[in-house]
């Protein structure tokens, strides 16, 4: 119907937005240098709530590498999100909504919530209101480290939102060196270990990422470390050493509490 209403002016592509190559949809003539004004390419989307977060993370990673939709330059985006997600994306340092998404978006973009659309404006009507968020890529990111490294530091910092920041950041390091390495990270980055994650500014995260990068350069195995893998290995060893008649084994790691359930004649375990 849209194509029929605008013959020759509108091209409809049926596909998966998570895999569609946006960079192939526009002519090379639209390309601009990154430092120039944004190109005449604009991503506008009423995003399904189920894909909005993975999609914006994907596009932010594209932005950091200047590929995908950002091969044309500083492509602007105007997107809809569940109101709560929109508030997280635009939340300032110290606010209750401050989150991983706040930092990941704001270190790469100028982010602005332009309006709120009431749920009753949609058919079918969602149970929540919708926020419209505008993204303009910065000419220079506020953190100049690989996206995956920044994402790992930020994700760990926010996994214990209500605790001091050193709690989550400590999970960047193996248990054997956790205390010493966390202290070194915070000291060299000049970050107060008793700050809550929501109190950490983009500038704080820049310092943390820069120091963590140096630590990873000194220890090539550090970046690949994932505390959840260490926890799983501990759980496996513990379960093997227990009699299967015991219905449950409770393991508490310094990172989080997980409950592993073991049943007779079963090698499966479940965590919660």
UniProtKB/TrEMBL annotation:
It comes from the Eukaryota. Residues 1-139 form the Ribosomal RNA adenine methylase transferase N-terminal domain. It is found in: Mitochondrion. S-adenosyl-L-methionine binds at residues 1, 16, 46. Keywords: Methyltransferase, RNA-binding, rRNA processing, S-adenosyl-L-methionine, Transferase. Its EC number is 2.1.1.-. It holds the Pfam family RrnaAD. SUPFAM superfamilies: S-adenosyl-L-methionine-dependent methyltransferases (SSF53335). GO terms for molecular function: transferase activity. The keyword Methyltransferase applies. InterPro entries: KsgA/Erm, rRNA_Ade_diMease-like_C, rRNA_Ade_methylase_Trfase_N, SAM-dependent_MTases_sf. It is an enzyme of class 2 (transferase). Belongs to the class I-like SAM-binding methyltransferase superfamily. rRNA adenine N(6)-methyltransferase family. This is rRNA adenine N(6)-methyltransferase. It comes from Erinaceus europaeus.
